[in-house]
Amino acid sequence: MSGVVVIMPRRFEDKRGFFSESWNRRELANQGFDFDFVQDNHSVSTHTGTVRGLHVQSPPYGQCKLVRCGRGRFLDVAVDIRVGSPTYGQWSSEILSFENGRQVLIPAGFLHGFVTREPETEIIYKTTNYYAPAHDLAVRFDDPDIGIDWGIDPLAAIISDNDAAARSFRGFKSPFKYEG
Questions:
Q1: pLDDT, tens digit, for every residue of 43-85?
Q2: In terms of Cα–Cα distance, which of 72, 74, 59 is closest to 174?
Q3: Does the 5-12+36-177 domain belong in CATH 2.60.120.10?
Q4: Which of 1, 86, 144, 156 is 20 to 30 A from 80 via CA?
Q5: 55, 88, 135, 178: which one is catalytic?
Q6: Distance CA 45, CA 55 (A)
């Protein structure tokens, strides 16, 4: 999908384990990704099948996110909500795990969510803007107009009260514009 990028940091392994740079501004800027991350977030989901999302912060508090797994495994999902984008309303997903070490870079203008595939899963992500509760928007994770395959029975998903009350995609008015 246009805009969402999977990043695979190098791991230097030896008999002790491994070392990896999960973020290196110079290395990623050399690849065309120059972001000023201002906040680190760490989420733990106790149970398999926990869904968080789909969330986005509206301008001027939009956030680019760099998402990775600290422990466990989860399916990370991004939905393009940039009006005028050729991929508007389409979703992409990636399995992130401690073992595979992958990260996903999600630009502003994408709904974001995830579902845990193992108990005690840790999700760690950086953001380019501070959390602004008044600008937090949510769309139902199981919205049929988006049609995300979460790999679980939506009725068995563990979700927050806020996510259960989220709006439908059909009624969602995106504040983001595609800029090519």
A1: 999 999 999 999 999 999 999 999 999 999 999 999 999 999 9
A2: 59
A3: yes
A4: 156
A5: 55
A6: 17
Decide if pLDDT at 1 tops 60: no
Question: What is the share, in percent, of the chain residues with pLDDT greater than 90?
Answer: 79
Of 61, 125, 131, 135, the active-site residue reads 125
Is residue 61 part of the annotated active site? The answer reads no
Q: In this structure, are residues 142 and 150 in contact, taking their beta carbons and an 8 Å threshold?
A: yes
Q: How far apart are CA 31 and CA 33, in angstroms?
A: 6
Residues 127 and 65: beta-carbon distance below 8 Å = yes
* Single pTM value for the model: 0.93
Residue 47 is among the residues annotated as catalytic for this protein: no
Q: Which two tokens stand for residue 94?
A: 């990636």
